[in-house]
Design a protein that fits this description.
about 220 residues, Lysozyme-like, 2 domains, 7 helices, about 35% helix, binds zinc ion
């Protein structure tokens, strides 16, 4: 079902692209100089922005590595990531300190947060994860509301991506992110049968890359 949906979305994207191109081809015969330049650039960016994943092997949990007192949101992270050269926020979901779930990039788009795995993963970012006094020190300081919201989201994602493993960013990267042991956290959760140790098959995928991934 997942593949069908993605293929379907992918076809729609293709159709939209060709529709947008149509006037350029069968229009009034305007010269290239009149229509090239910004128009072509826009189409190129449009394609990249809509780049969809073909499969979802991992649901990756991150943290924003911000102080617990910093009540930031998806818009803040979107600004940060754009400043780093991304097209937009690199995560699909953000969970604020009060547990509010916000959406980032499209759920089926290639991510820009899991180096080497961006084309086979979907990302969630919990706000927080470092100590108040020193942002270099990781700390599991997520609120009850955030974890409740995380569980609800994971339950939905496991339903959607039935063969995906739930992992922490630190399982595919030498980082503290998300500042807690995801596999321990998942023990006993009703939705966690799919989430397990991926060390047996984790290896960065190199087949598809996106501009975002290259920049990450
Ligand atoms: Zn991370």
């Amino acid at each position: 079902m997942e593949n069908d949906t993605i293929l379907d979305l992918f076809s729609q994207t293709q159709i939209k692209q060709s529709e947008r191109k149509a006037p350029l081809v069968i229009g009034t015969g305007a010269t290239d100089t009149a229509l090239s330049g910004p128009k072509v650039k826009y189409q190129k960016n449009g394609l990249k922005k809509k780049m969809l994943r073909r499969e979802t092997k991992y649901i990756v949990i991150h943290c924003s590595a911000t102080r617990p007192s910093q009540d930031i949101d998806a818009t803040t992270i979107d600004n940060w990531h754009r400043a780093r050269g991304f097209f937009k926020i690199g995560y699909a979901f953000v969970i604020k300190r009060d547990g509010t779930r916000e959406t980032g990039r499209g759920i089926d788009e290639v991510m820009a947060s899991n180096k080497g795995f961006n084309n086979v993963s979907v990302s969630i970012c919990l706000i927080g994860g470092v100590t108040e006094n020193d942002i270099k020190i990781a700390e599991n300081n997520f609120t009850e509301e955030q974890l409740k919201s995380l569980d609800e989201l994971l339950e939905e994602l496991v339903e959607k991506y039935t063969s995906a493993h739930i992992i922490g960013h630190n399982q595919i990267s030498i980082k503290d992110c998300p500042s807690f042991d995801v596999q321990s956290y998942l023990k006993g959760k009703s939705f966690s049968e799919k989430g397990d140790d991926i060390s047996r098959d984790a290896s960065p995928t190199k087949s598809i890359t996106s501009e975002d991934e290259k920049k990450f």
